[in-house]
Design a protein that fits this description.
mainly alpha; globular
């Protein structure tokens, strides 16, 4: 096991728990991500992971969301591949670092999206919130390219004295007070 593998494992455990905690009827609920349903949040995580695994880790047959009948099975398949790459001592450090910053780093924020969409507790791990806060408060140009690609929305204004999780969500273009519309 590697530090990158352990970090991914902790984040994936939390994300998988949110998938497991979602009631069947909530998979069609709107998410805080414009145009996405709860199911689409997991589809994004799985399909983006497949893209990164193919392009950066040389995994040609990485799982795609459409290959599975349900979000839990799709995520587990993806998780298994990512975990094996991160735990492999032969994985070049540059590849492991890229997987951490592009796939593992994404799980806490998409966990919030999924929790909010499915009516679960959207509280993020405080250590993850601190990491995101530190990353987001660096050079704003480092986030502009992500906004240009549609990965983050325009920052949502949040009071300066709001809890740090709310300020992080605002910087990610998410409204921290978002709740799904009534069914």
């Amino acid at each position: 096991m590697t530090e990158a593998g352990d970090q991914y494992r902790r984040r994936a455990d939390r994300f998988e728990a949110l998938i497991g905690g979602a009631a069947l009827e909530r998979w069609a609920s709107r998410s805080p991500c414009e145009g996405w349903l709860a199911r689409d949040v997991v589809a994004h995580v799985v399909d983006y992971s497949a893209q990164v695994l193919r392009e950066k880790a040389g995994v040609p047959d990485a799982p795609a969301f459409a290959d599975y009948d349900d979000p839990a099975t799709a995520f587990r398949a993806t998780r298994q591949v990512i975990q094996s790459v991160l735990d492999d001592p032969g994985t070049p450090p540059k590849v492991a670092t890229h997987l951490v910053w592009s796939l593992s780093f994404d799980l806490p924020q998409h966990g919030w999206d999924l929790a909010a969409a499915t009516g679960q507790d959207p509280t993020m791990d405080p250590e993850e919130v601190e990491l995101l806060w530190g990353s987001l408060n660096g050079d704003p140009r480092s986030w502009d390219w992500q906004r240009a690609r549609g990965w983050y929305g325009t920052p949502v204004p949040v009071p300066a004295d709001a809890p740090i999780q709310d300020r992080v969500l605002g910087l990610l273009g998410r409204d921290p007070s978002w709740t799904p519309p009534p069914a």
